[in-house]
Amino acid sequence: MSDLHFVRSEMLPERAPPASTVGVVGWMSENLFNGIVNSTLTILSVAFIVWAVMGFLGWAISPTWAAANLRDCQEIVAGHEGACWGVIRDRWKQLLFGFYPQELYWRPILSFVLLFIALIPVLFAMISRRMNWFLLLAVLAIGALQVGGTLGVALAVVLAAGAAFVGFQMVTTNKADRAEQIAAGAKRLPNPLIFSVLYPFIAPWLLWGGSFWLPIVALLGFVLGWAAMRLTAGVIGTLGATILAFVVPVLWWLFAAAGFADVAHGILPMGIEAVESRLFGGMLLSLTIGVVAISISLPIGIVLALGRQSDLMIVKALCVGFIEFIRGVPLITLLFVASTLLNIFMPKGTNFDIILRVIIMATLFASAYMAEVIRGGLAALPRGQYEAADALGLDYWKAQRLIIMPQALKISIPGIVSTFIGLFKDTTLVSIIGLLDPLGLSNTIRAHTDWVGIYWELFAVIALMFFVFCFSMSRYSMYLERRLRTDHR
Amino acid sequence: MTTMTDPHHQGGFKLSMLIYDSRYRSITIQIVALIGFLTLIGWLINNTGQNLADLGKEPSFGFMTEGAGYDINQRLLDYTSTDTHLRASFLGLLNTLLVAVMGCITATVIGVMVGVARLSHNWIISRLMAFYVEMFRNVPVLLWIVLAMAVMIESMPSPRAFRGEDPAATMSLFDTVAFTNRGVYVPEPLFSNSLGNIHLFGTSSLRFDVSLDLIVFLVVFIGGLLISRMIGKRANATQEKTGVRPTVWHIRLAVVAVPTLTVLWALGFYLGYPELKGFNFAGGTHMRNSLIALWLALSLYTAAFIAEIVRAGILAISKGQTEAASALGLRPRRTMSLVILPQALRVIIPPLISNYLNLTKNSSLAIAVGYMDITGTLGGITMNQTGRELEAILLLMLVYLSISLTISAVMNWYNNSVKLKER
User: Fold this and answer.
1) Which of B12, B33, B189, B313 is least enclosed, having the fewest CB within 10 Å?
2) Is residue B32 one of the residues assigned to a domain?
């Protein structure tokens, strides 16, 4: 009686899931072949992919890298459909740099690398100060070597020694010890943000060349303004000092700067070979226009966004008018303005070169979009942040600087990056007004007798270049979005 | 924002209060801003006036009534090279609107399909769509336009290839459509008992012919749709009252189809097919390369953005909504049409319309492939021929601005009408 069971007293061992639901087969039957419609679609797509990839590879794999012109290519592929990659070997430098002098290619490359180093403290904030300085010094040392001459070598040696010193420290010290030392008051390296601030003065000088005194003089304007504000604040009050801080630099740039640079250059000539704007082209041109326009448009966009949000009716109307006007017209009409009208708007005799004019209009264009992005960031901030700032008794500008802007800008970073991607893609429009961006260059190359009628290879390479830039930026912005997710609400 | 209040000042008004008293400061700032703005504008106008006077080009819009002297190859209305610049610009504007409307429709269709397909459980389909979206979003639209134009010119057969006993190329779709390197020839709708045209605006530059056949057709068709909708509403009301829905779909179909078909039959509707005559095609509607290339490139490019919007809109609806709908016993199709779509549309429509706006503005890139839109006529040949850059660009900007403002007014109106009424 006692050992009579009707209920199982121990668990059965787990059985393996049916073979059709695990592994490759299971995944396929769940994701690719569940149902007739899906199976058909899968088969059709696979067929399409195979067809497209075979077609593309059949075209792209063609041993024409060495061909010197289109006729060579046609002989090599002998009647088959095949790409002619010789044009890329022949002209890839042009697609990247335009007609920039070959022996000076190190300058755009250096400014491009420096751009990343300048961006590190702004965007990444994930490597140590010493790492940042080490990178900067090492890159500058390599750059200085290119200048040549005794001065260049001396500079390179000094910079390399600095890099070696920082690198040595970085390797020999323990991270935890270092943190303790800093807590105990040890000296830190200066904030690398200093270089990020200096970069806008260094990069144009590297790209366009000329006297070293020009960036110094431009920078001096800001220093003078700051000094004027500091020195006079006690005497004439904050308001007067603030006004002076704007007036003094403007006066300096308008009247004194050029003369000062000439005199200084006369006494101590330092400089690198100047390069004319019309030699700029290819990706160099697109990047220059894109980066300059975006970085100047950021502060303008902030001002416009604040103006649009403000209670001051006239200021608001002006900002709304500007933003809606720029956003309502296509970029190409603004580029027409740059190419035909901007010189007419200026006092008689003003004639500044076409790239500068395009950059001005692109900056205005980007500012309007940037203002909308930042307005989105401002609107996304919870109302409580504004009220808390008021409750603390902060005035408008202090509240903006300490509470609102840091949060609003953080929220808008993905939007800012996508504005940049949009503007970077739109720089191809300058080919319509005759500048030699990659698309404009493809026409120039096609006009050469060696490469008449060559389309696909050039388009493929240009598309690839833009894709690499834009895709990596959009991935980066998605990464930032995840990292900066603040979850306020 | 400025909620601070100052202690009430005893005594009179002092000049420093303009800056330090928050009651007056905002006025001071605004007046300074206004004066600064007006000074800037005045300075620009003054410079422009002087420079133009020195060039001997007093600003005037008189050139718009002079003869244009150039041809527009793709046009919707009658035009000869003896017509005025105004007429040319008008045709250009119509061409802009044509490509914009065509582009918006195709971009929406492709975009919605791709956006939904990207959410498919089928791994290959969703990867393929992601590839399409990333490829088109990350390459400049101008490159796509130029590429599409190159494809049209380089890889389509010339009309000559259609000739002979054993032609190298044949017409597609049961011999009705011809793809050639000069463009695409499609059948055109014709009426044998045509009612003629209404001529609007006489012989002025804005003269406009409207086909009476088309008007009659549209009136009958739309009237049918309205009646059909009324029947549908009545059926809904009956369902609400009695719980039983009367079968009305055949009546609704008949109300639309019968009058429309009758009208078409009465007007003698037939299709005019393109035919090879000599070295080129005759008959049918000729859509030039440039139009096709622009249309294709803009649609595919914008569709990539629309796909992302649609995907985001559907993903924005929380899963709980679907589950709640199934808990109420709604079938999947009714769930989609009654619960998911109305909510998703509220998220989708505003960015969708701003993409329509982008497409319209991007259509100005027509100038790169020689499609004669308003940028190609007014901002291109007219500007270069007359040398009236200021006036031409000003008009061009105004045209685009009014298109944009119209579209955003519609968007705001829609936004307000579907906005959730909360709190």
Assistant:
1) B12
2) yes
